[in-house]
Amino acid sequence: MKFNLQQINEIIDGKLFGDGNIVITGVSSIGQSKEGDISFIKDESLINEIYKTKASAVVVHRPIKDTKKPLIITKNPFLAFTKFLQVVSDQNRSQLCLVHDSAIIGKRSCLGQDVSLGANVVIDEETTIGNNVTIYPNVYIGKNCTIGDHSTIYPNVTIREEVVIGKRVIVHSGTTIGGDGFGYLQIKRKHVKIPQVGSVEIGDDVEIGSNVTIDRATLDKTVIGPGVKIDNHSHIAHNVVIGENTMLIAYAKIAGGARIGKNVMIAEDVGITDHAVIGDNCIIGGGSNVYKSLEPGSVVWGSPAKPLNLEKRIQVIIKKLPEIYKKIKGTR
Question: Is 100 a catalytic residue?
């Protein structure tokens, strides 16, 4: 990357104090910066770091006395810096070749404008790829899929048949979308597979981490709503519906047919049982197991998940059990 400070200031819409011609060649955190980098100070607690950093310029929320270091002043430095990081990220992705010679495109499939396909990408028949889509090496996209404009599919992703992906979606390496749901009938002590003939639908502005699995529906569709963010190693089973702007942190496990509302926060290593209904705006603490439906706005933790304050009291009592046991034993 190579930008001057004036260009960066225009991108983040701040107020520049210092030489706008200074060339910036890297981005970094305030404590790890080197000459040529630009960094940022998130809030007042880090303000003294500006006197220690080796960064050539800093994005900050207010003027700083006694420093000659060039500054870009903006109300929300973190958000402003994120805008610049997006430009850097887009620039890096644009270095991918347009269509690699080894890419295979099936019959009646359609590519939009400015699509980039890496080495060994395979796109099956009757699939539509939107404009400005970037697909990295070793990706497989099945028959009759749709990938929306400005989406990015990182290496070694598998997207099976009949999957619909919206605009500006990011899918990280190793993820599988549209694998068969885990459905079997128990007949005479044998497991008889239920054919999984549904699909997966993913809304706009979704980001899916590495090694995530999203299963297709048995019938109908598994739905990931707009704005949903899914962290690494999470599993979404068949026929799950997740509402918009919900977030799943690493190792979340959602069983078949569960319904997750809007703006739900699911912390790390949470399990949700099949067909549970989780209302809008719920918060589920890390390591919880949810065995029944939750009302909108619930804040729960534990296994089984229960109201947060109740679980906290239980944890305090558990820690005191050895002491309580000694007192009870001593009275006998």
Answer: no
Query: Which two tokens mark 30?
Result: 């305030």
In which domain, by residue range, is 298 found?
104-309
HSE toward the beta carbon, residue 166, CA cutoff 13 A: 16
Non-local (6+) Cβ contacts of 52 within 8 A are 31
Confidence band for 91, pLDDT divided at 50, 70 and 90: confident
**What pTM was estimated for this model as a whole?**
0.87
- CATH number for the domain that contains residue 84: 3.40.1390.10
Q: How many CA atoms lie within 13 A of 323 on its CB side?
A: 5
Q: Quote the mean pLDDT of the chain.
A: 95
* Same domain for 133 and 86: no
Question: Count of domains in the chain?
Answer: 2
Catalytic annotation, pick one of 61, 233, 238, 275: 238
* pLDDT over 80 at 94, yes or no: no
Which tokens sit at 127? Answer: 């699939």
Domain check: are 239 and 154 in the same one? yes
